[in-house]
Amino acid sequence: MSTVSIPGAVVHYTTHGAGPGLVLVHGTGADSVANFGHLVDRFTDRHTVITPDYAGSGGTEDDGGAITLDALIEQVAAVIRDNGGEPVDLGGFSLGAVVAAGVAAKHPELVHRLVLIAGWQDSTDPRHQLTFKLWRDLADLDESSYARLITLLLFTPGFVSRMGVEALAEFVAGTKCSDGTNRQIDLGLGIDISDLTPKIQAPTLVVGCTHDQLVPVGHSRELHESIEGSTYAEIDSGHLVVMERPDELVDLVRGFLHPEN
Q1: Which tens digits make up the pLDDT trace of 19-75?
Q2: Burial code of 17-27, b = ≥16 C-beta within 10 A, e = fewer?
Q3: Could you tell me which residue ranges the AB hydrolase-1 domain spans (predicted)?
Q4: Is there a catalytic annotation at residue 239?
Q5: 32, 212, 226, 230: which one is catalytic?
Q6: 107 labelled catalytic
Q7: Is 220 a catalytic residue?
Protein backbone atom coordinates (compact mmCIF):
# COMPACT_ATOMS: atom_id res chain seq x y z
CA MET A 1 0.00 0.00 0.00
CA SER A 2 1.32 3.44 -0.97
CA THR A 3 0.13 6.91 -0.02
CA VAL A 4 0.25 10.39 -1.46
CA SER A 5 -0.53 13.48 0.61
CA ILE A 6 -2.37 16.46 -0.82
CA PRO A 7 -4.19 19.32 0.89
CA GLY A 8 -7.11 17.80 2.79
CA ALA A 9 -6.32 14.12 2.29
CA VAL A 10 -3.83 11.28 2.52
CA VAL A 11 -4.76 9.00 -0.37
CA HIS A 12 -4.02 5.28 -0.19
CA TYR A 13 -3.48 3.24 -3.34
CA THR A 14 -1.98 -0.05 -4.52
CA THR A 15 0.08 -0.97 -7.56
CA HIS A 16 0.43 -4.34 -9.27
CA GLY A 17 2.18 -5.49 -12.41
CA ALA A 18 4.45 -3.65 -14.84
CA GLY A 19 4.03 -1.54 -17.92
CA PRO A 20 2.02 1.56 -18.79
CA GLY A 21 -0.31 2.72 -16.05
CA LEU A 22 -3.93 1.62 -15.79
CA VAL A 23 -5.79 3.42 -12.99
CA LEU A 24 -9.11 1.94 -11.83
CA VAL A 25 -11.45 4.09 -9.72
CA HIS A 26 -14.10 2.40 -7.54
CA GLY A 27 -17.71 3.35 -6.87
CA THR A 28 -19.80 4.52 -3.91
CA GLY A 29 -19.76 2.41 -0.76
CA ALA A 30 -16.87 0.27 -1.96
CA ASP A 31 -13.12 0.54 -2.15
CA SER A 32 -10.60 -0.49 -4.78
CA VAL A 33 -10.37 -4.05 -3.47
CA ALA A 34 -14.13 -4.61 -3.37
CA ASN A 35 -14.71 -3.39 -6.93
CA PHE A 36 -11.49 -4.35 -8.70
CA GLY A 37 -9.46 -6.70 -6.48
CA HIS A 38 -10.63 -9.78 -8.38
CA LEU A 39 -9.91 -8.15 -11.76
CA VAL A 40 -6.46 -6.63 -11.25
CA ASP A 41 -4.58 -9.75 -12.36
CA ARG A 42 -6.52 -9.71 -15.64
CA PHE A 43 -4.61 -6.57 -16.68
CA THR A 44 -1.17 -6.90 -15.08
CA ASP A 45 0.28 -8.73 -18.09
CA ARG A 46 0.36 -5.39 -19.92
CA HIS A 47 -0.08 -2.72 -17.28
CA THR A 48 0.93 -1.39 -13.93
CA VAL A 49 -2.53 -1.45 -12.39
CA ILE A 50 -3.04 1.37 -9.88
CA THR A 51 -6.10 1.27 -7.63
CA PRO A 52 -6.71 4.31 -5.41
CA ASP A 53 -9.21 4.65 -2.58
CA TYR A 54 -10.76 8.09 -2.61
CA ALA A 55 -12.16 9.98 0.39
CA GLY A 56 -14.65 7.95 2.41
CA SER A 57 -13.20 4.58 1.39
CA GLY A 58 -10.41 2.22 2.32
CA GLY A 59 -7.45 3.67 4.17
CA THR A 60 -7.71 7.14 2.68
CA GLU A 61 -7.94 9.85 5.32
CA ASP A 62 -9.62 13.22 4.95
CA ASP A 63 -11.19 15.84 7.20
CA GLY A 64 -14.52 13.99 7.46
CA GLY A 65 -16.50 16.84 5.94
CA ALA A 66 -18.69 16.92 2.85
CA ILE A 67 -17.00 15.24 -0.11
CA THR A 68 -16.77 17.27 -3.29
CA LEU A 69 -16.22 16.04 -6.82
CA ASP A 70 -13.28 18.42 -7.23
CA ALA A 71 -11.62 16.85 -4.20
CA LEU A 72 -11.96 13.33 -5.61
CA ILE A 73 -10.69 14.46 -9.01
CA GLU A 74 -7.59 15.95 -7.41
CA GLN A 75 -7.04 12.84 -5.28
CA VAL A 76 -6.96 10.60 -8.35
CA ALA A 77 -4.81 13.10 -10.25
CA ALA A 78 -2.34 13.12 -7.35
CA VAL A 79 -2.06 9.33 -7.48
CA ILE A 80 -1.27 9.49 -11.20
CA ARG A 81 1.40 12.14 -10.63
CA ASP A 82 2.83 10.13 -7.73
CA ASN A 83 3.45 7.31 -10.21
CA GLY A 84 5.50 9.41 -12.59
CA GLY A 85 2.88 11.71 -14.09
CA GLU A 86 2.90 10.03 -17.51
CA PRO A 87 -0.50 9.68 -19.20
CA VAL A 88 -2.37 6.59 -17.99
CA ASP A 89 -5.34 4.61 -19.15
CA LEU A 90 -8.05 5.56 -16.68
CA GLY A 91 -11.16 3.55 -15.86
CA GLY A 92 -13.95 4.28 -13.42
CA PHE A 93 -17.03 2.45 -12.22
CA SER A 94 -20.24 4.22 -11.09
CA LEU A 95 -19.21 7.28 -9.06
CA GLY A 96 -15.68 6.36 -10.09
CA ALA A 97 -16.72 6.90 -13.71
CA VAL A 98 -17.85 10.42 -12.82
CA VAL A 99 -14.51 11.06 -11.11
CA ALA A 100 -12.55 9.60 -14.03
CA ALA A 101 -14.45 11.77 -16.51
CA GLY A 102 -13.62 14.80 -14.38
CA VAL A 103 -9.92 13.91 -14.32
CA ALA A 104 -9.86 13.51 -18.11
CA ALA A 105 -11.61 16.86 -18.61
CA LYS A 106 -9.57 18.85 -16.08
CA HIS A 107 -6.20 17.15 -16.50
CA PRO A 108 -6.04 15.93 -20.12
CA GLU A 109 -2.25 15.63 -19.91
CA LEU A 110 -2.68 12.76 -17.42
CA VAL A 111 -5.08 10.56 -19.41
CA HIS A 112 -4.23 8.45 -22.45
CA ARG A 113 -7.49 6.52 -22.81
CA LEU A 114 -10.67 6.61 -20.74
CA VAL A 115 -13.21 3.92 -19.77
CA LEU A 116 -16.47 4.94 -18.07
CA ILE A 117 -18.53 2.05 -16.65
CA ALA A 118 -22.11 2.53 -15.39
CA GLY A 119 -21.59 6.23 -14.83
CA TRP A 120 -23.78 9.29 -15.16
CA GLN A 121 -23.50 12.93 -16.15
CA ASP A 122 -25.89 14.70 -13.79
CA SER A 123 -28.20 13.87 -10.90
CA THR A 124 -31.26 15.93 -11.81
CA ASP A 125 -33.34 12.98 -13.01
CA PRO A 126 -36.25 12.63 -10.52
CA ARG A 127 -35.84 8.85 -10.38
CA HIS A 128 -32.16 9.24 -9.56
CA GLN A 129 -33.06 11.62 -6.74
CA LEU A 130 -35.73 9.27 -5.41
CA THR A 131 -33.40 6.26 -5.47
CA PHE A 132 -30.38 7.94 -3.92
CA LYS A 133 -32.44 9.71 -1.24
CA LEU A 134 -34.04 6.40 -0.21
CA TRP A 135 -30.60 4.77 -0.19
CA ARG A 136 -29.28 7.59 1.99
CA ASP A 137 -32.26 7.65 4.37
CA LEU A 138 -32.09 3.92 5.01
CA ALA A 139 -28.44 4.28 5.99
CA ASP A 140 -29.65 6.36 8.96
CA LEU A 141 -32.82 4.42 9.72
CA ASP A 142 -32.18 0.70 9.24
CA GLU A 143 -28.88 -0.85 8.20
CA SER A 144 -30.49 -4.21 7.37
CA SER A 145 -33.05 -2.61 5.03
CA TYR A 146 -30.24 -0.51 3.53
CA ALA A 147 -28.26 -3.65 2.72
CA ARG A 148 -31.24 -5.48 1.24
CA LEU A 149 -32.26 -2.52 -0.92
CA ILE A 150 -28.81 -1.95 -2.38
CA THR A 151 -28.43 -5.67 -3.11
CA LEU A 152 -31.66 -5.60 -5.13
CA LEU A 153 -30.54 -2.46 -6.96
CA LEU A 154 -27.06 -3.74 -7.81
CA PHE A 155 -27.95 -6.97 -9.62
CA THR A 156 -30.43 -8.39 -12.11
CA PRO A 157 -33.18 -10.55 -10.55
CA GLY A 158 -31.80 -13.71 -12.15
CA PHE A 159 -28.32 -13.12 -10.75
CA VAL A 160 -29.71 -12.61 -7.25
CA SER A 161 -31.71 -15.84 -7.50
CA ARG A 162 -28.69 -17.77 -8.75
CA MET A 163 -26.54 -16.60 -5.84
CA GLY A 164 -28.34 -19.01 -3.53
CA VAL A 165 -29.53 -18.44 0.01
CA GLU A 166 -26.18 -18.67 1.77
CA ALA A 167 -24.19 -16.53 -0.68
CA LEU A 168 -26.95 -13.96 -0.79
CA ALA A 169 -27.11 -13.76 3.00
CA GLU A 170 -23.34 -13.37 3.14
CA PHE A 171 -23.41 -10.54 0.59
CA VAL A 172 -26.20 -8.70 2.44
CA ALA A 173 -24.43 -9.15 5.78
CA GLY A 174 -21.24 -7.71 4.30
CA THR A 175 -22.99 -4.61 2.95
CA LYS A 176 -22.45 -1.98 5.62
CA CYS A 177 -23.23 1.69 5.82
CA SER A 178 -20.49 3.97 7.02
CA ASP A 179 -19.95 7.68 7.38
CA GLY A 180 -17.75 7.59 4.31
CA THR A 181 -20.40 5.84 2.23
CA ASN A 182 -23.04 8.31 3.40
CA ARG A 183 -20.85 11.23 2.35
CA GLN A 184 -20.34 9.61 -1.06
CA ILE A 185 -24.10 9.11 -1.52
CA ASP A 186 -24.60 12.78 -0.63
CA LEU A 187 -22.16 13.68 -3.39
CA GLY A 188 -24.01 11.39 -5.79
CA LEU A 189 -27.17 13.40 -5.23
CA GLY A 190 -25.58 16.57 -6.58
CA ILE A 191 -23.45 15.48 -9.55
CA ASP A 192 -23.36 17.64 -12.67
CA ILE A 193 -20.44 17.25 -15.08
CA SER A 194 -22.33 18.38 -18.16
CA ASP A 195 -19.87 21.25 -18.52
CA LEU A 196 -16.89 18.89 -18.31
CA THR A 197 -17.77 15.97 -20.59
CA PRO A 198 -17.54 18.03 -23.83
CA LYS A 199 -13.96 18.89 -22.84
CA ILE A 200 -12.79 15.27 -22.76
CA GLN A 201 -10.13 14.71 -25.41
CA ALA A 202 -8.97 11.18 -24.63
CA PRO A 203 -10.33 8.27 -26.69
CA THR A 204 -13.23 7.07 -24.56
CA LEU A 205 -15.20 3.86 -24.11
CA VAL A 206 -18.54 4.24 -22.33
CA VAL A 207 -20.01 1.00 -20.98
CA GLY A 208 -23.69 0.84 -20.03
CA CYS A 209 -25.47 -1.94 -18.15
CA THR A 210 -28.75 -2.85 -19.83
CA HIS A 211 -30.62 -3.80 -16.63
CA ASP A 212 -29.09 -1.24 -14.28
CA GLN A 213 -31.60 -0.27 -11.57
CA LEU A 214 -29.29 2.03 -9.59
CA VAL A 215 -28.02 4.16 -12.48
CA PRO A 216 -30.28 3.25 -15.43
CA VAL A 217 -28.55 2.67 -18.73
CA GLY A 218 -29.93 5.87 -20.24
CA HIS A 219 -27.36 7.76 -18.17
CA SER A 220 -24.50 5.89 -19.86
CA ARG A 221 -26.02 6.58 -23.26
CA GLU A 222 -26.21 10.25 -22.36
CA LEU A 223 -22.54 10.21 -21.32
CA HIS A 224 -21.61 8.67 -24.66
CA GLU A 225 -23.56 11.31 -26.57
CA SER A 226 -21.85 14.12 -24.66
CA ILE A 227 -18.28 12.91 -25.35
CA GLU A 228 -17.33 13.56 -28.95
CA GLY A 229 -15.93 10.51 -30.73
CA SER A 230 -16.57 8.14 -27.84
CA THR A 231 -17.30 4.45 -28.34
CA TYR A 232 -20.34 2.89 -26.69
CA ALA A 233 -20.95 -0.69 -25.60
CA GLU A 234 -23.63 -2.30 -23.45
CA ILE A 235 -23.45 -5.38 -21.24
CA ASP A 236 -26.51 -7.45 -20.29
CA SER A 237 -26.05 -6.85 -16.57
CA GLY A 238 -27.23 -5.02 -13.50
CA HIS A 239 -25.27 -2.12 -12.06
CA LEU A 240 -22.51 -4.14 -10.38
CA VAL A 241 -21.18 -5.46 -13.67
CA VAL A 242 -17.71 -5.93 -12.16
CA MET A 243 -19.21 -8.82 -10.17
CA GLU A 244 -22.11 -9.94 -12.35
CA ARG A 245 -20.36 -10.02 -15.75
CA PRO A 246 -16.61 -9.70 -15.05
CA ASP A 247 -15.42 -11.75 -18.03
CA GLU A 248 -17.43 -9.74 -20.54
CA LEU A 249 -16.31 -6.48 -18.96
CA VAL A 250 -12.62 -7.44 -18.98
CA ASP A 251 -12.79 -8.58 -22.62
CA LEU A 252 -14.48 -5.33 -23.60
CA VAL A 253 -11.97 -3.14 -21.78
CA ARG A 254 -8.95 -5.09 -23.03
CA GLY A 255 -10.30 -4.91 -26.57
CA PHE A 256 -10.56 -1.14 -26.29
CA LEU A 257 -7.14 -0.69 -24.72
CA HIS A 258 -5.43 -3.11 -27.13
CA PRO A 259 -7.37 -3.09 -30.41
CA GLU A 260 -4.42 -4.61 -32.24
CA ASN A 261 -5.01 -8.00 -30.52
Answers
A1: 999 999 999 999 999 999 999 999 999 999 999 999 999 999 999 999 999 999 999
A2: beeebbbbbbb
A3: 22-246
A4: yes
A5: 212
A6: no
A7: no
